[in-house]
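> call design_seq(struct)
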């Protein structure tokens, strides 16, 4: 799995910021401003969330996303197809503190609707045709845990490791014109996350590295069964959080990532290969406390852009243009 030059630069930048923040913290009372002293309190809104022993936290989320992409035949530069996806989904995540350094969580999700519109161009044999499809239904569950390896009050930095697993529940059903699809992935997914950062009186920061590994995914429609392999993802994010007071706080950050190539095979013998691609994203959240320390509402925004990359199918090479997924969400957070 590759990391491009820009991604390496972001990682180095994050490590430099981390080193600088640690220096400020070690100076203790001699430092000034937002880095003046550590804050060892815990909140469900923390960038590096870690629950206390016996503490439960529930995150209820609704999000809406849009994505558009154009695919052209590489040799002629003619449009093959352009597509637009509009998605709405809800999820509930419940976490419980097993100890002051370890918590486990369960996430349940439901796809309210994914509406897809595909318009075919002159490079396609279906030139001028528009297809509209919809998917809906329960998503694969996710189980996970996170452990705090280091605490900032003794080690000058917080260091966490997290592991989650989403098993295959059943074969996914692809959407077709006039036939609704479902939201099952058709394979398992494992995520490994490392987080490092500090929490000060009014400001926090976090550098995160995440690896997503996908098993073979099986989906089907009314005529064929498909198997997809590859597509593993590596990402790095640098996030900051500023607390204005006990009622208002905001997150902000950016990230870089890379996705491996994928291979889609059907039982009819057709093969589509999608080359690896790099991407970047921006992230922001605003929180309002309903009950400081226990209940919050947040509005979340992200925009993740995937760079141009190639696809190969039936001996023809296509070029997928840069595409961006914009997502806005509303969260309710309750600690008990």
């Amino acid at each position: 799995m590759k990391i491009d030059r820009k991604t390496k630069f972001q990682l180095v930048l994050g490590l430099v910021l981390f080193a600088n923040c640690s220096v400020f913290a070690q100076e203790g009372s001699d430092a000034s401003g937002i880095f003046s002293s550590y804050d060892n309190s815990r909140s469900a809104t923390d960038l590096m969330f870690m629950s206390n022993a016996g503490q439960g936290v529930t995150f209820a989320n609704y999000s809406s996303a849009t994505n558009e992409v154009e695919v052209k035949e590489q040799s002629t530069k003619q449009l093959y197809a352009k597509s637009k996806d509009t998605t709405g989904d809800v999820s509930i995540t419940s976490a419980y503190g097993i100890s002051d350094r370890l918590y486990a969580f369960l996430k349940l999700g439901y796809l309210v609707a994914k509406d897809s519109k595909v318009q075919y161009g002159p490079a396609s044999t279906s030139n001028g045709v528009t297809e509209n499809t919809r998917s809906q239904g329960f998503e694969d569950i996710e189980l996970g845990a996170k452990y705090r390896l280091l605490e900032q009050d003794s080690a000058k930095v917080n260091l966490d490791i997290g592991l989650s697993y989403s098993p295959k529940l059943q074969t996914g059903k692809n959407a077709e014109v006039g036939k609704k699809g479902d939201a099952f992935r058709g394979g398992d997914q494992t995520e490994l996350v490392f987080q490092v950062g500090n929490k000060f009186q009014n400001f926090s920061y976090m550098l995160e590295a995440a690896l997503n590994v996908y098993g073979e995914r099986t989906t089907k429609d009314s005529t064929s069964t498909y198997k997809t392999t590859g597509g593993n993802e590596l990402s790095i994010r640098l996030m900051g959080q500023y607390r204005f007071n006990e009622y208002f706080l905001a997150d902000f950050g950016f990230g870089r990532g890379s996705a491996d190539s994928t291979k889609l095979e059907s039982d009819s013998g057709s093969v589509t290969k999608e080359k690896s691609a790099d991407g970047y994203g921006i992230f922001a959240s605003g929180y309002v406390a309903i009950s400081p320390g226990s209940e919050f509402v947040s509005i979340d925004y992200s925009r993740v852009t995937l760079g141009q990359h190639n696809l190969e199918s039936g001996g023809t090479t296509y070029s997928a243009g840069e595409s961006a997924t914009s997502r806005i969400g509303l969260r309710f957070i309750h600690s008990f």
